[in-house]
Amino acid sequence: MEIVLTGVAKSYGDQPALYPLDLTVKEGEFVTLLGPSGCGKTTLLRIIAGFVTPNQGRVYLGDTDITDRPANRREVGLLFQSYALFPHMTVAQNVAFGLKVRRLSKRRLAEQVERMLDLVSMSEYAGRYPKQLSGGQQQRVALARILAIEPKVLLLDEPLSALDRQLRIQMQLELARLIAEVGITTMFVTHDQEEALTMSDRIAVMDRGTIAQYDTPGEVYDHPSSEFVASFIGRSNLIKGQVVPGGAAGGAQFRFGPHSLPLRADAARGAAGLADGAEPPEAAGGRAATSGIGHREGGTAGERTLLVRPDHLELLPATATAGLPGTVATFQDLGEAFIYGVDVADGPQLTVRVPRGRSEGLLAVGTPVRVALNEAAAEWLIPAPADSRVGAS
Asked: What is the DSSP pairing of strand 210-215 with strand 202-207?
């Protein structure tokens, strides 16, 4: 079932929680609301669920306006962070609870409970109580209880946040598989970017009560619509400079201080005209990517921002002729990779990610190096801000 929000806004007193926004989630889609604490993502989810009433705008489930319907008449299932299982009921009794309220026959109820427990691989635990289950098992039971009543839409409010890292990664894949198998339209709230990138068909990145960008995980990561999105999603090198003519085949260069980098054709795709204040392209689904940009970043006239991800850079010996000269300033060992901070001579500090298997040894702080774009590099010229409105705090 499709979810459509038109002009939805919410304030608490004189404090805006959501500015007017539009959002469409297609039938069967898995969409994640991603953003920092206080950005409005949980408020938006609870408006759809019926627990919060918007000050303006409408909420549609398919062609039906459900804005004024109470939560228990929306055919929406909401899974909370706490799971909210009944401790005095067995696994089977928890799953059956919503079905009993709907007064199904005993045979139909038993069949549905069995089917749901089989779906989440919990059949052998039917007689256990929640306290006898692990966090991941409790999460599966809570999901089975919601799916048992066959809602039209599934809403998930950070359901994996209480799990340890390894179990969380496992449950990300398991939850995505289960939802894809059922084929239900799903909205998922998280502040974990890895979770959003792993599980989603599309991501709505939220910033201070607005949607900063709504697109596929790949587009959000590779082609962010603003500096906020670029810095919030993954590690980023955001380089301030100017676009100037030059490069091969009449291309362009990005100049910062005494340095310059060639701009590949794709780098400027999102900044048509390359003029300060140019309108960013429309995001997937027909929504303008500018709709959620919070404020105009400061800077000199004509200044632009180039995004280069740390894994698109490589470190070369100081004797190399390619790249930018610099010195290793910081170092982190993440296990699977090394993260270096390199102070570029007369330039910014750049973050470089070196996979452990590709490193010939650790580089000590103070080591002179050169930083170059690798062959797979995909720079991105961030669209100039086009909205001076300041969002919610």
From this structure: antiparallel
